[in-house]
Automatic annotation (TrEMBL):
<dbReference type="GO" id="GO:0005886">
    <property type="term" value="C:plasma membrane"/>
</dbReference>
<feature type="transmembrane region" description="Helical">
    <location>
        <begin position="315"/>
        <end position="331"/>
    </location>
</feature>
<dbReference type="GO" id="GO:0008381">
    <property type="term" value="F:mechanosensitive monoatomic ion channel activity"/>
</dbReference>
<feature type="signal peptide">
    <location>
        <begin position="1"/>
        <end position="26"/>
    </location>
</feature>
<dbReference type="InterPro" id="IPR011014">
    <property type="entry name" value="MscS_channel_TM-2"/>
</dbReference>
<feature type="transmembrane region" description="Helical">
    <location>
        <begin position="429"/>
        <end position="448"/>
    </location>
</feature>
<dbReference type="InterPro" id="IPR049142">
    <property type="entry name" value="MS_channel_1st"/>
</dbReference>
<keyword id="KW-1133">Transmembrane helix</keyword>
<dbReference type="Pfam" id="PF21082">
    <property type="entry name" value="MS_channel_3rd"/>
</dbReference>
<feature type="transmembrane region" description="Helical">
    <location>
        <begin position="599"/>
        <end position="619"/>
    </location>
</feature>
<feature type="domain" description="Mechanosensitive ion channel MscS">
    <location>
        <begin position="641"/>
        <end position="707"/>
    </location>
</feature>
<keyword id="KW-0472">Membrane</keyword>
<dbReference type="InterPro" id="IPR010920">
    <property type="entry name" value="LSM_dom_sf"/>
</dbReference>
<feature type="transmembrane region" description="Helical">
    <location>
        <begin position="545"/>
        <end position="578"/>
    </location>
</feature>
<feature type="domain" description="Mechanosensitive ion channel MscS C-terminal">
    <location>
        <begin position="715"/>
        <end position="797"/>
    </location>
</feature>
<keyword id="KW-1003">Cell membrane</keyword>
<feature type="transmembrane region" description="Helical">
    <location>
        <begin position="506"/>
        <end position="525"/>
    </location>
</feature>
Length: 814
């Protein structure tokens, strides 16, 4: 056994060093492979003996290349659409230049930016398609050129030798076919390059307009404290209206619908992937909903009940809500109207999710939030004169204040109500919303319309994203609790304190993530998201030099985040997969196999996580080859015990002589295995102590596993009776006591045996089988039953006796 173990350790050690060496040389190997694959072999003539077979192979290659070289439908479609797109872009370029001079509001600039970003998406998608065709064509051209030279040399060689005329003719035919194919590929390559050049020209125009619009957004006239208009009392209503061109966001509904349909036709492949995502979401919701129905939960826990009831009773609404959110970001370059429709549907679907979570007094606030979202969004589709726009903002601010007063009156009494979650958040922000509305009204009157617009956006759009993210939070809390409920519910014995602690950690993590995302979206409302990103991008990419080392804060953060992410991923996988009742339960794997699978996945994630983390620092991993050799020496000397325990842990996991939950006995230590770790295992004794045992001790020493194949144990009771008792009656009584014991197993059946004739007693043995954990209790119960039965039948249990014979006694005097 020990030889096998030593051999296993040596084998794993060699494999481990080879794996480290491969990982360390990943970058170098990748580069070498790429360079070797692109080397051109020197053309050589084909041997005349093989030429007939090679002619047949060459003809098949030519047919295959001709099929592949045909211009695809996508390229033909792009070729036909480029003139239309070019005309459209040039027309809209002129209109965009007029629009820029028309002093539009920021919302309309975002509208036009969206439109030009869609143009950019079209062109980039076309460019990727053409680049792929060019690369594929270049590979075919290179191969065809090589084959042409080979068959040219073969033709010349065959003419010098005594080769039949038919074969020379066939060789000549193959040679000319390859030359013809080469010319065809060259012509197609020129066509692809011409298309790519046209797309680059259009993309250059598109990016130039996008830059102009971005510069317009950041110009001083859109600063919050910039006075764009005269005070309201100095404003005059103009007699004529300025006509804004179509490119200035005054497109007809038919054109908007046409643009939307064109977008979805162009990115049709995205729709298929989106359908797959929707199906996955449906399957996931059904899975966790089934878990809620299968296992009972604490009905007295109001928060748990509310969260799980949301998943159980409103799965269709939740699926639709999640799908609309994914669609909003998945089709991020869709026309603005599509994006706004998605947002509106998200808000509508959020109502049934959050409605009952609100205090009854504030439940109708959700409908008011949707109304103000529509009111605010309308500004992007209606072109206002400056006085109309200011009146529109004044009306909006007044409506917000009236709505706020309606829901919070009287405010002092409302604050004293027992409020929670979103209702409490809404009431606490009431003074701030009043202040923002007053700021909007005053700044509008004074001509600071930028400040008026931003103040109202914080109130209306901020409320919309708060409603959305509260719905997301409720769903994430419900799904997290449902997953943990299913995970722990499938297990027999659950540590409730540990379960509650894990639930609290997960909920806190979910709430933190949702808050961070809400904050980022709130910055986007203020048009400060790009500023925020630029600031941190500059901060994280600023290079610092220490000696000969150059690094950035971003590299260090990437290193730390990759490592943290790897450890979180391993913990999550261990939580989901570990145990026979884990996520792999449906595969019905043998006991312990899910733990082995989990271990392999976790080690791979950690290994690649370390490699990626080092790569993020810009470290050349090829330099670690020498370190791998040094690591081997270190393992052979200083780290021998550590690696021995590590390899022993792997042997325990894959060979499975012990598993978590088994009762084992090693070195006079009896207890239950809690965990098999990397270096050591944890065994809980029946005295309540947790003993850390090195894995090598469990592999190298004799190990008794009481519950490896099954968890039943034989209990043996030794008892004696006086010589005057009837042995047959005693055997009947012993067998009856064991049979009547409810915890004793019928198979194997209890056995009562006469043992031997003792010095003072007739000795008997009673053997019966019980579950391991009932061993001590069953022995006690059956022994008491035997004693009571013996007493009832008058059978005595002897005790040791000794007769003393006194031959003489001393005299009194003495």
């Amino acid at each position: 056994m020990n030889k096998k173990i030593i051999f296993s350790k040596q084998t794993f050690l060699i494999a481990f060093l080879v794996f480290v060496n491969l990982l360390c040389s990943a970058q170098r190997s990748e580069t070498t492979f790429f360079n070797d694959s692109t080397k051109t072999k020197k053309p050589q003539p084909i041997d005349i003996l093989d030429v007939v077979k090679e002619i047949q192979i060459a003809n098949e290659k030519i047919k295959e290349s001709e099929i592949k070289s045909k211009i695809s439908k996508d390229i033909k479609k792009i070729d036909s659409l480029i003139p239309i797109q070019q005309e459209d872009i040039l027309l809209n370029k002129k209109q965009a230049e007029i629009f820029i001079k028309a002093n539009p509001n920021r919302q309309k600039i975002n509208n036009i930016l969206n439109k030009w970003n869609i143009y950019n998406s079209y062109l980039e998608a076309w460019q990727i398609t053409i680049n792929n065709s060019i690369q594929r064509n270049a590979r075919s051209l290179k191969e065809t050129d090589y084959n042409e030279k080979v068959w040219q040399l073969t033709l010349e060689s065959s003419k010098k030798q005594d080769v039949p005329t038919e074969i020379i003719s066939n060789i000549n035919s193959v040679f000319h076919d390859f030359r013809k194919l080469k010319n065809t590929l060259s012509q197609e390559n020129k066509k692809y390059l011409s298309l790519e050049s046209k797309i680059n020209d259009l993309n250059s125009i598109t990016l130039d307009i996008i830059d102009q619009l971005e510069n317009l957004k950041t110009s001083p006239i859109y600063n919050v404290l910039y006075r764009r208009h005269e005070p309201l009392w100095k404003t005059t209503i103009p007699e004529t209206k300025v006509e804004i061109p179509r490119g200035g966001d005054k497109e007809s509904g038919g054109i908007k619908i046409k643009n939307t349909l064109d977008f979805f036709k162009t990115f049709e492949h995205l729709i298929y992937l989106y359908i797959v995502i929707v199906l996955i979401i449906i399957g996931f919701l059904r899975y966790i909903k089934k878990g809620i129905a299968l296992f009972e939960y604490d009905q007295n826990n109001a928060f748990l009940k509310k969260s799980l009831d949301l998943i159980s009773h409103k799965p269709k609404v939740i699926i639709a809500f999640i799908c609309m959110i994914i669609a909003k970001f998945y089709f991020s370059n869709a026309p603005k109207i599509v994006e706004d429709i998605f947002t509106f549907l998200v808000l509508v679907l959020a109502v049934p999710i959050v409605y009952k979570s609100l205090t009854e007094k504030f439940r109708n606030v959700v409908f008011v939030i949707i109304f103000f979202y529509l009111y605010n969004t309308a500004k992007a589709y209606i072109w206002f004169e400056s006085y109309q726009y200011r009146a529109y903002l004044l009306l909006e601010a007044s409506l917000v204040m009236l709505s706020l007063y309606y829901f919070t009156r009287p405010y002092k009494k409302t604050r004293k109500l027992p409020l929670k979650d979103l209702s409490l958040f809404f009431v606490k922000l009431t003074p701030l919303i009043y202040l923002l509305c007053l700021t909007s009204i005053i700044s509008n009157i004074l001509g600071y319309t930028n400040l008026a617009d931003v103040s109202l956006k914080i109130c209306t759009q901020g409320s919309a994203i708060t409603l959305t993210f509260y719905g997301i939070l409720r769903i994430l809390e419900g799904t997290s609790l449902a997953l943990m409920h299913r995970h722990y519910g499938s297990k027999g014995n659950v540590n409730l304190l540990k379960k509650v602690a894990v639930e609290k950690k997960v909920l806190k993590f979910v709430q933190t993530i949702v808050f961070i995302l809400w904050l980022l979206f709130f910055l986007n409302i203020l048009d400060q998201f790009s500023t925020f990103i630029d600031f941190f991008n500059n901060l994280l990419t600023e290079p610092y030099v220490v000696g000969s080392i150059t690094f950035t804060i971003g590299d260090i953060l990437s290193f730390i985040l990759i490592l943290i992410g790897s450890f979180i991923a391993t913990s999550f996988i261990g939580f989901i997969i570990d145990g026979d009742e884990g996520a792999l339960k449906f595969l019905r794997l043998p006991k312990g196999v899910p733990n082995a699978i989990s271990l392999v996945i976790r080690y791979l994630i950690l290994a690649f996580g370390i490699v990626f983390a080092l790569s993020s620092l810009g470290i050349d991993l090829g330099k670690f080859n020498l370190m791998a050799g040094a690591l081997g020496l270190g393992i052979g000397f200083g780290l021998q015990n550590v690696i021995s325990n590590f390899v022993s842990g792997l042997i325990l996991v894959f060979e499975r002589p012990i598993l978590p939950g088994d009762t084992v006995e090693v070195n006079n230590l009896l207890g239950t295995v809690n965990k098999i770790g990397i270096r050591s295992s944890n065994i809980s004794t029946y005295e309540g102590a947790d003993v850390v045992v090195p894995n090598n001790n469990l592999v190298a020493n004799d190990l008794i596993n009481w519950t490896l194949s099954n968890n039943i144990k034989r209990v043996e009771i030794l008892i004696g009776t006086t010589y005057g008792s009837d042995p047959n009656q005693v055997l009947e009584i012993l067998l009856e006591c064991a049979t009547n014991y409810t915890q004793a197993m019928n198979d194997p059946a209890p056995v009562a045996l006469f043992s031997d004739f003792g010095d003072n007693s007739l000795n008997f043995r009673l053997r019966f089988w019980v579950h391991f954990e009932l061993g001590l209790k069953s022995k006690s119960d059956v022994s008491i039953a035997i004693y009571n039965s013996f007493k009832e039948h008058g059978i005595e249990i002897p005790f040791p006796q000794q007769d003393i014979y006194i031959k003489s006694t001393p005299d009194k005097e003495e």
